[in-house]
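User: tokens in, sequence out, please.
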């Protein structure tokens, strides 16, 4: 990675950062768009998705039991509490909302040049998730994801860390958008009767398709917001 980025040494700081933002975005698009890479990388989005369910469940007063992450990149977060009410609605809605929100949060830290804080927060969140995971595949997924963040934080150069942080930002948002499109495709074929959107429909009476549209809008606005924060043009 350092060898690939070595030509950036001849650019100004602004030009270097603009180049890394664009390159990271292109790499994220490839990873999300190509079936083979997406099949593996989707696990990271699932970790964020289930972590969002877990965090909101705890914040809303529910008792969190466990998180399961499966090899087909699906996941389940189990919590105890009321079967309806605002807490359950917020918990159900948090899954698809979390990846883009994490992405825009990462963009804020990257734009503020707080890469170390961004990487540190990611490691802490992954450790918190690891404590709650109750199956071997889930543990492996979280440990490997956390290891990547730790290695970049400990050994990556400033440019590597910046490029990686930009990639994480784009990947969470674009990857989150793809999962929204995937669940809607399954719903249209009646293959996801218990999706988050359908659970929300039963809880609120609002059609599942409206919830999917809201998740998609959140992803689009997060993408635009991240672009506004990261893409400074012309670079100086």
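Assistant: Sequence out:
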């Amino acid at each position: 990675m350092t060898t690939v980025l070595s030509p950036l040494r001849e650019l100004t700081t602004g030009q270097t950062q603009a180049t890394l933002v664009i390159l990271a975005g292109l790499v994220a698009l490839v990873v999300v768009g190509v079936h083979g890479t997406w099949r593996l990388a989707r696990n990271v989005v699932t970790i964020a998705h289930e972590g969002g369910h877990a965090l909101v469940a705890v914040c809303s007063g529910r008792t969190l039991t466990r998180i399961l992450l499966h090899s087909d990149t699906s996941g389940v977060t189990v919590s105890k509490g009321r079967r309806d009410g605002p807490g359950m609605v917020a918990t159900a809605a948090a899954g698809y909302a979390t990846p883009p929100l994490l992405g825009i949060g990462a963009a804020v830290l990257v734009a503020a040049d707080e890469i170390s804080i961004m990487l540190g927060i990611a490691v802490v969140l992954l450790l918190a998730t690891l404590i709650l995971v109750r199956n071997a595949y889930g543990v492996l997924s979280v440990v490997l994801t956390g290891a990547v963040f730790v290695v970049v934080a400990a050994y990556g150069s400033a440019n590597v860390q910046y490029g990686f942080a930009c990639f994480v930002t784009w990947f969470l948002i674009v990857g989150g958008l793809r999962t929204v499109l995937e669940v809607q495709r399954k719903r249209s074929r009646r293959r996801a009767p218990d999706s988050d959107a359908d659970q929300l429909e039963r809880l609120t009476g609002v059609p599942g398709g409206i919830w999917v549209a809201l998740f998609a809008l959140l992803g689009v606005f997060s993408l635009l917001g991240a672009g506004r924060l990261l893409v400074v043009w012309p670079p100086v």
